[in-house]
Amino acid sequence: MSVSVYNKISRGNYCFAVANVILLLFVLPVLCLSNDGDFAKRHNVVPSPAGAQRFVTIQPGQSGILFTNRLAGLEFYKNMVAHNGAGVAVGDVNGDNMADVYLCNIQGANALYLNQGDFHFKSEPQAAPLQDKMSTGAAIADVDNDGDNDLLVNGIQSGTRLFLNDSRGHFELNENSGLDSSGTTSSLALADIDGDGDLDLYVAHYIDRMYLADPTTRFDYSRKGDQWGVTRINGESALKPRWKDRFTVSNSGRVRELPEADRIYLNNGDGTFRDVSTESMFVVEREVRSLASLREWGLAVTFRDVNNDLLPDIYVCNDFPNPDRFWINQGNSQFKLASHLNIRHTSRSSMGVDFTDLNADGVPDFMLMDMLDPGRARRLVQLDKEVDRSSRLLDWTYVPRFNRNVLMVSQGWQQWFDTAYYSGVEASAWSWNVRFLDADLDGDDDIIVTNGFSFDTMDMDGSLQLKEARKVESRDARSLYETRRLQPLYNSPNKLFRNDGGLMFQESGEEFGFAHDGITYGLGVADFDNDGDLDFITNNLNEAPSLYCNTAQEPRILVRLVGGVGSKVYLHHAGGKTVREKVSGGGYLSDDNGDMVFAANTLGPQGVLEVEWRDGSKSTRIERPKLNSIYRVEKQEAVKRVAKHEVSLVKPMFERLVDAISFRHFPRLEKDFDENPFLLRRLSATAPPMLCRDFDGNGWMDVGFQLARNRGVQVFLNQNGRRFKSVASEYNDSGDLMPNAGWISGLMINDGQPTFDGVLNRVIPELKTDQQVRLLLRADINGDSSVDVVMFTQSSLSQHPASSRAIVLLQRAGVFQRSSVWEKSFGELGQVASAVCLDMDGDHDADLLVSREVGSIALFENRGDRFVDVSRSSGLSRFVGLWQGLVVGDFDNDGRIDFAAGNLGRNSSLEPYRKELVHLSRSGEMRLSLFALKREGVLLPIDDMDLFARVVDRSKLPQRYRDFSDTDLTAVLDSFGSIQQRKINCFETSVFLNRGNIFERLELPSVAQWSPTSSINVADFDVDGREDLFLSQNWYSIRPDLGRLDSSAGVILLGQGDGTFKPVTPARSGLAVLGESRNAVVTDFDRDGRSDIMATQTLGQAQLYLGQSRNRGIRINFIDNGIQAKYIGCSVRLIYPNGTGSPRRWFHSGDGVLAQCVLEQVLGFEEWPVSIQCEWSNGTKQTIPVGPEKYDYMLP
Questions:
Q1: Whose CA is closest to 1066, among 341, 325, 339?
Q2: Mean pLDDT for the stretch of residues 559-575
Q3: pTM for this one?
Q4: 789 membership: H or E segment, kind and range
Q5: Any bridge partners for residue 976, and if so which?
Q6: How far is 367 from 370, CA to CA, in rounded Å?
Q7: CA-CA distance, 539 to 239, in Å (whole number)?
Q8: What pLDDT, in 10s, does the model give residues 718-750?
Q9: 50 CB-side CA count, 13 A
Q10: Dihedral sign from CA coordinates of 501, 506, 510, 511
Q11: CB within 8 Å of 964: residues ≥ 6 apart
C-alpha cells in the first residue's frame, strides 16, 4: 500500500495571546514515523502550550495574513447580494502537508497565503486568481485526479471558475472547464455522485442583484385575462434578455423575483465538467424534474451520506422565499426529495448547515442556521419577518419554516426531529457558518457559528423609519440607497456552544476565546500547526480575518485521508464509536481541509481506527492507535463499488396498518387568536372524545368517537383486528354531554344499528352550566355500591381562562341527583385538563387526581361526605406546569399507585425563559391570559408590542419597539385590575412515584421532552412484566409566531421496573404518529395477547398499530354484567410461583385527554404465573388460577 510522509517538518509552533501579544513558543519534535501497518504512517504530535483561553487569536502582524474583505462606497448600500459575504477555503495547495488559506474578497483582490509553519503565512499574490471579481465562495479540491489540489471560486456575475494547480501552488484558469462563468454563485460542494472515482460538483446559485430590494426599481403591469404580468422595469421592456422570465405577479398584485437555478456537474476526470442541470435527476412528489426547473435562492450546499449506503446525499439551504431541499441519493442517478415523513420543519432562511452524529445512533444529525437573536429585548424588535397561517400549520403533511436555528436529531433512520430549544441552540443572531467539532476534546462535538450583518433588516423601528424616509419623492437614487443607514448595524459575537452531553449545549464563546464581535462570513477549519487539533480562520467584513490557534491539552488523534472524499473514519473506543466523514466544500461560502480529529480520552487498550472508503474498497483498520498522533492514510487500490444500502435488521415493535380505520378528527375551529392574541395554542382544536368498548357484543374491541362538528357519533366496529367498519348516527342530546366520551359508554350496536337506550344522558337530570362538560368519570363516590358520576367543565374560548367547575351526581336506586356539598368541596379548581377517579390512598373509596393546564396537579382525597385537597401534603402543589393527560400505574412494582402526567416539555419557545416565567391571568368581563418574565420584581414582556396593542390602549405603549422590551407590564395592564400571577417551574412530562403519603417526581427521558405530551397510556408493550408508556404528542395548533411543536412520532418508553424508563426510537418502534396526536387508546384489537395502539390526529387520519412483541401476554376482560361499582377502580396482577407478582394494573374511569380507560388489559410477565389476583374497588380479593399456555381470562 502506498505511503506518503510529511516532506516538511515544522520547527516551531507559535500561539500569540490577544491581550498582551505574548509569544508562546515550543519546539515540535522531529517526526517519529511508526509502521502501524503497511497502510498508514503516524506522525507524533505535542499539543500547543496552554493559552489563557482554549482558542488564542493570532494577530495579523504575527501571522502575515494582511488581508481585508471590503465592501464600501455606494455599493455598500446598493448591492444587497454582496452582503451575503465572502468565504475562505483551506487546504494544502503546494504538497507540503500544511494547510494553506485562500480568502475571497467582495471589493478587491482575493488572496492566497501559504502556510510556513508556526502560524506564519506567506502571501502569494501571483497565485491568487480573480483579482477583479466580486468573489463569494471557494473550495480547494483535486478535481482532475493528478494528486494536487485545484481551486474553485464562485462570484457575483462570474459563475464558477476552475483553476488547475501545477502541483506547486500556482494556478491557471481552465477556460474550458464546462462550468457556468456568468451566473451569481454562492456556496459549492464536491462528492463522487456517480461512483466513477472523481469529484462531481454542486453549485448553489443566488441572483445578480435584488431589484425588489432596490428602492429605485419601478414596475409597470398589465393583465391578460386572469393573469397579471410585469411589462416594464425601470422603463425597459420585460422582454429584454436581462428581464425575461425574471418577475411574476400574483393575483393580489404582489411581484415575485425569480433567482437563478442551481447547477450540478459531473466530472469528466480531466479537469472539465459536464453540466447535467437540465437532465431529469430530481424526484419531487413522484415527478422527476431537472435542477434547472427549480429556480431557488441557494445559499449553502453540502454532500453527506445520511443513510449509510455510501452514496452522497445533498442538503441545500435556501433563503426565505424557498424551502430547503434535502435530496436523498437513490443510487440510480436520481435524488429523491425528503418529505414530511423525514423532516417536520426547517429554518426559514437557512444559511449554513453541518452534520455530525450527536446521539451516536449511527445516523448523522444536522443543524441549520437562521437569524433569531439570543436576547429577549432584540427579539421583540425583530418582527419584520414572515409567519405561516395557523390553519396551514395544522396540516401535518406540510413542512413549515421558522425564523430560528434548527437542530435535527436522527431517530435511528431517515427521520429527524428538531431539538433546538431543548438543546439551547435555537438562537445565535444573524448566523452564516456552522461547524460541528470537538473544541474541548471531551468526545462530544461542540458547535461554532459565525455571525453578523451590516443591516438589521428585521428591526421594526428601522424598517418603519426606512419606509417613511423613502416616501419622500424628491430623493435622488443615491439618497434613496443611503436611507438604508436607518436600519441598525447588526454586529454580533461569534458563538461557540459547548456540548454538555445529552444534547444539551451551553454558549461558551467568551470562555473559549471565540467571540469576535463584528460581521463574520467565511469559516475554514484545519490543523494549521500540525499538533493534532483543529484551528480555524474566519473571513470578516471590512476588517482583517481572525486566525485562531487551538491550545487544547487533551489527548487526540487526527486522521488525514489521501483523497477519499465521502469516506468515513470510525474510532472504536471504550465508550462506543465516533464517526467522521470527509467532505469537500459544504461550508457557507467556505471549505475546510478535511482533517478529522478524535478525542482519545476514552480510547482504551483495544481501540481501533477504521476507514470505510467511499468507493466500497476494503476498509482500512489501524489496531490500537496511539495517542497524540496524526495518521495519514492512503487507499491502496480501488475496487468496483458495491452499494451498501441501509437495512433494518430488527423487526419493529408495531406493525402499522394503513387505512385500517377511516376516522379523521375535524375539530370545530374558531378564530382563537383573534379572540385572545396571547393564547399559546388554539383552544378550539380540541381532542376527539374517544371510547373503546365492545359495542356490538362480539368479543372484539371497537372504537367510538363523538364528532366535534355535529351532533353525531361514529362507531368503528372491529373486523377481526385489522380493519374497522364505520357506523354513524346522530343523537339529539338535551343534556349537553356531547363533548366527552363517557356518556356513550351505554351505546350499543344491534344488527348494525346504534341504540342509545343505555347512554348516560337518558337518566341524568338536565345540567344548567355555561361551560361545556368535557371530562366525565364514573365511580362509587359515597360508598353505597352505586356508580356515581363526577364531571368537570372546561371554559370556552369566550370564557378563557375561567376556572373549571365540578358536577357531582350521586346515584340512588337508579336516580341521579346533584350534590352541592361534594361539588363545593373542590374549591377553586383552575383549568382542569385531565382527571382520574381511583382509590389513591388505599382506603377503598374513590379519590380524584386532577391535572391543570396552568397550575399544579391536585389530589382530592375522599372523606366519605366530601373531597379534601391534599395536594400540598402529598408534595404535588410544588410543581406548577402546563399539565395535560394523566395515567396511573405501578411503575416501580411496589403495589402503590404511581402516575404519569403530560406537560409542555422542554422544547418550546418558552424554554429560554423557563427560570423566570410567570403566567398572568384574569377571568370575568376583562379577561387576560399570557406569559411574561418576572425579573427582580418587574414584569417584562416576551410577546411583541403589536399583540399588546390589540388588548390595551395604544397610549399605554411606547412609540418604539426597542423601548417596549424594558416596559414594566404592571403599568401596561393596569386597566385589567387585579391579575393573578403564577410562577411556572415545571415543564417536564413526568412520572410521580408514590412513596406512601408523598409523591416523588422523576422527569421522563429527554425524548419525552422534545414535544408536548397531551395524553399517556400504560401497557406492557414488550411483555416483560414491567409497565411501559405510550405518549401522544405534538401541538400543531400553537400560535403561528411561536412555531409548531412537532418533534415526535409518538413515544414508547419501556419501564425498567424501578420507576425509570428507556425510550424506543421510531425506527425500532415502527410508530409514525407525526400529526398533532391528542389522545389514544391501547388494547388488544386483534386478540393475539399483545397491546395495540390506536392514535388520533387533528385533521389527520387515526392510525392503528398492532403489537409485534416476541411473547404474548395474558389478556383479561370482564364478563358483561353492566357497569358495577366493584369493577371501576379494581386492580389485577399476575402472581408468580415464588409469591411475587407483576405490577398492578387498574381499571378506572378517566384516562388521558377526553378518552376513557379500556376495560380489557394485557398483562406481561417475567415468568409464567400461577394465578391472577384481582382486588375489587371495595377491598375484596379474588384469585383465578392460570392454566398452562392459557392466555385469555374473563373475570366475573
A1: 341
A2: 95
A3: 0.95
A4: strand 788-794
A5: none
A6: 10
A7: 40
A8: 999 999 999 977 766 545 555 666 666 777 888
A9: 4
A10: negative
A11: 380, 941, 944, 945, 948, 957, 958
